[in-house]
Amino acid sequence: MVRRTKEDAEATRGKLLDAAQQVFYTKGVAGASLLDIAQAANLTRGAIYWHFQNKSDLFHAMLQRVTFPFEQALHLSEEACAREGNAAEAIVASVRFVLHTVSTDATARQVLDIALHKTECVGEMFAIRERRMQGALKFTCQMERMLHLAALQQQVSLSIPVSSAAHALHAVFCGVLHAWLLHLEPPFDLEEEGVRAISLYLQALGLCADK
Length: 211
Prior knowledge:
Elements: H1 2-27, H2 34-40, H3 45-51, H4 55-83, H5 87-104, H6 106-117, H7 126-154, H8 162-181, H9 190-204
Helix pairs in contact: 1-2, 1-4, 4-5, 4-6, 4-7, 5-6, 5-7, 5-9, 7-8, 8-9
């Protein structure tokens, strides 16, 4: 009975997240109400508050379903390259994984489109801005460690501080992703162009990402 109840709760949570994704995509996050989401899921607002504190919390959970696998992949890449691999190669492989997923998974693309183009970080949603900043900081810190390791492995002295290099890498990655998501019919291959951009950037730093 306990297991059944837990499974039911998870199913309800997933249903709410699916409904939130569709409503946010159609109406925008600011224009969507919790009642809209509850009705789309054929549930009550009480069901939402059972699982989530507010709209910001619901939005974050929806985003985490997509971004958590990316975070895990990056973390595993960092651990692996510290033990045995080429850190620059691991950076490219991590970027490739993210861009391939976004370009081939309709859910991932839609959720990131919502996050980047359909969200106003004001009022109750201001917390999303804080979480974005935390996410960007986490990403750049990981990139900083991996760039530092790559420079040590390849015995290269970077021409700019490693922290600056990490922030610039983040900007290159986000720039390609933003440009691709802007179009209903993407004008270029996200994975191919994104990997090329990151590889060229690493080359400019004096790092080789080839096996």
